[in-house]
């Protein structure tokens, strides 16, 4: 991104766009991943491109859930691989949790490329290439997953998830943590714990909480998760956005 000077007021946003467009050219990101990114940018604008105090609480709760559950899995798609491969590998190492590639637009070639990128960032094992299990209640292609990964997980972190899969996973008793900048999306509305934040900020923040909470008693972690009210959180975020917009002087 040589033509954009660091002093450009939208430098960070343009840098991230560059990451995603490069990854699309390399074949990691699906074409519609660019559209999804644009939608995310619009919501991030409304949030002030910052993590709200409400979302910090959601990130802390997600960290507690990832630490208490026995088989945590971090699901990775094209956009997440483009923006946060290194950070997902670090989070997986801190918990520890498995990494599984799970795509909305299934493609063996894209899975190979994503797996290579994760391994370049230090991932020892990547799940999702075996494709030997199916999430019930979803059409065949999108339901494909790994028996040792998502299929037998008790908690799944699914950044930028689609609503159908989120619903199907919760229906079979998984705790589903979604990261989605759109608080109105079906995945945001149906997750067990929703994080309305940019994946770029959210993953390092969850990792920080994981490292802080690691030494905390299991009972305390359980209380953090039990006291989480996702419906109230989503309401608080919508009020936060509307107050922010109402406070802007013409
Ligand atoms: O790589 P694949 O095949 O798994 O496909 C991935 C995409 C993202 C293309 C696919 O899952 C898809 O079409 O997703 P949707 O239904 O467009 O939903 C994406 C959601 O992610 C939208 O609600 C966006 O607001 C949100 N989003 C986009 N970028 C970010 C984001 N949320 C957090 N951080 C982002 N950087």
Question: What report would you give on this structure?
Answer:
54% of the residues lie in helices and 10% in strands. The protein is an alpha/beta fold. The chain has one domain (53-243): Rossmann fold (3-Layer(aba) Sandwich). The chain has a 5-stranded parallel sheet, with helices on both faces. The model has no long low-confidence stretch (mean pLDDT 95). Ligand PTJ is lined by residues 30, 32-33, 36-37, 39-40, 43, 77-79, 83, 103-105, 160, 162, 179-182, 185, 198-200.
Blueprint of the fold:
Elements: H1 11-25, H2 31-46, H3 53-68, E1 72-76, H4 78-94, E2 98-101, H5 108-120, E3 133-134, H6 140-143, E4 144-145, E5 155-159, H7 163-171, E6 175-179, H8 186-190, E7 193-195, H9 199-213, H10 218-226, H11 230-246
Helix pairs in contact: 1-2, 1-4, 3-9, 3-10, 4-5, 4-9
- Would you report the number of β strands? 7
Could you give the distance between the termini? 34 Å
CATH homologous superfamily annotation: Phosphopantoate/pantothenate synthetase
Radius of gyration: 18 Å
Summed up, the helix count is 11
Give the averaged pLDDT, no decimals.
95
Uncertain residue ranges: none
Which ligands occur here?
ligand PTJ
Sheet with most strands: strand arrangement: 2-1-5-6-7
What proportion of the residues form beta strands (DSSP E)?
5-15%
